[in-house]
Amino acid sequence: MKTIQNYVAPDAQSMRRLQDRLGYSDARMAELAGLDAAVPWHSYIGGAEPRSLGRQRLFYVAARLTLDEAQWQRVLAAMHELGARFDYEDLRQPDALAAPEPVADEERKFGMLLVSRNGSFHEMEQLREFAHFAHEADVSRYVHSAFYDSDIDLCRFSFADHDGLDDASRDRIFDAARKTITRFEFDGRIYQGGIPPESDG
Questions:
Q1: What is the DSSP letter of 140?
Q2: Among 29, 50, 30, 48, which residue's Cα sits nearest to residue 39?
Q3: Of 109, 110, 92, nearest to 101 (Cα)?
Q4: Dihedral pair phi/psi, residue 54, rounded to 5°
Q5: Whole-number Å distance between alpha carbons of 102 and 99
Q6: Which helix (H) or strand (E) holds 146?
Q7: In angstroms, rounded to a whole number, what is the distance separating the alpha carbons of residues 140 and 25?
Q8: pLDDT tens per residue, range 144-170
């Protein structure tokens, strides 16, 4: 029987890009990876020494993203047949009385992907302003995406793989964020900046 050998885990940037592409909150990414409350998803994408996803955990993520619901249920049934006991609740299925889930908003500006998790007007405005300042500072090419997680009121950035991304460029990106984004994470720390948000309602 063949098995995976010489496994190298995806780096934190790759995991952050996946989260940005999916538009998922940290809580939803933790569900996707099958993490329990003791191990937060953020520990895989932030901090000085991010955790690495083991091959079994990454296999779980890939399976959840690849299999349709009927196929996934067959996998769970096979686990039960092999003797495992567990409860399973698909948190993606909305309750009949639940409000509809907000729709993400995204656009590209100066080569950067700007995403608001819940499509909030004030978040998109802040992201556009950030893109403008980053472009003016000639560092927009270093930013792959800016993702505003509306659920926790926090903006995160993922950087493009680029040889020219030095400390001075990172400082200019930070300055652009500080001028425009109300609450953002940079190098594993959370900062306050920008102008207080206006109500969408």
A1: G
A2: 30
A3: 92
A4: -65, 165
A5: 9
A6: strand 143-149
A7: 24
A8: 999 998 878 889 998 877 677 888 999
